[in-house]
Amino acid sequence: MGEKKKKEKKEKAEEKPAAAAEEAPPAEAAPPAKKKNVNVMAMFNQTQIQEFKEAFTMMDQDRDGIINEDDLANIYQQVGKDPDRKQLEKMIAECPGQLNLMGLLGLFGENMTGTDPEPKVRDAFKMFDEKQEGFLHEEYIKDLLMNVGDPFSKDEIKQVWKEAPIEGGKLDYMKFVAIIKRGKEDE
User: Fold this and answer.
1) Measured between alpha carbons, how far is 156 from 141 in angstroms, rounded to an integer?
2) CATH class in words for 118-186
3) What percent of the chain has pLDDT above 70?
4) pLDDT digit string, tens, across residues 2-39
5) pLDDT digits (tens, 9 = 90+) for 52-77
6) Share of the chain above pLDDT 90, in %
7) Domain 34-112: homologous superfamily in CATH
8) Do residues 53 and 65 make contact, with C-beta atoms less than 8 angstroms apart?
9) What is the rounded end-to-end Cα distance, in angstroms, of the chain?
10) How far apart are CA 108 and CA 51, in angstroms?
């Protein structure tokens, strides 16, 4: 009887990994798309979404709801270019999973909101904050923007300052980074 119990335990132990493998999603599966799609849809207004749908339809040459390498090659050819297959593969690989409309919106959303994560942008401002107060003097930032790197024009400075959280001549860069990365409504 002891051998029978051992055999039953062994069979149950062998069944558990198989059952777990059936229940578990594949390792390459992406996170649930619904949550990401909701966030993506919230990034754009209805007019923008409609424009992206129209652009997607133009790119989806075979009208199968997915942009693939052949679709991209056809777009390139329409403008007189002969793309390299590796370049097309790389472009398609930027989207996790199939490049459908939601995937395209996700890519646009990532690229339109900036390429650096919020902590990295915040750290860039902190480098100029000697006292680590979370504020930088307005004139100092204006001087940097107008004279370092790719200089801002006076009009560009005015546009930035309309959205910037400035009080008493100081820019609250912690709030400013949140505006840059998430928009003004998150204040």
Assistant:
1) 13
2) mainly alpha
3) 74
4) 555 445 544 544 444 444 433 444 433 334 333 344 46
5) 899 899 899 899 999 999 999 998 88
6) 25
7) EF-hand (1.10.238.10)
8) no
9) 70
10) 12
Q: Which amino acid, residue 170?
A: K
With contact defined as beta carbons under 8 Å apart, do 184 and 163 qualify? Answer: yes
For 63, left (φ over 0), alpha (ψ -120 to 50), or beta? left
Dihedral (Cα; 107, 157, 46, 108), 10-degree rounding: -10
Each residue of 108-122: pLDDT tens digit?
A: 777 665 557 788 888
Three-state SS sequence of the chain: CHHHHHHHHHHHHHHHHHHHHHHCCCCCCCCCHHHHHHHHHHHCCHHHHHHHHHHHHHHCCCCCCCCCHHHHHHHHHHCCCCCCHHHHHHHHHCCCCCCCHHHHHHHHHHHHCCCCCHHHHHHHHHCCCCCCCCEEEHHHHHHHHHHCCCCCCHHHHHHHHHHCCEECCEEEHHHHHHHHHHCHHHC
Mean of all residue pLDDT scores within the chain: 77
CATH 1.10.238.10 in the chain, residue ranges: 34-112, 118-186
Task: Read off the tokens for 25.
Answer: 């999603």
How many Å apart are CA 102 and CA 38, to the nearest integer?
10
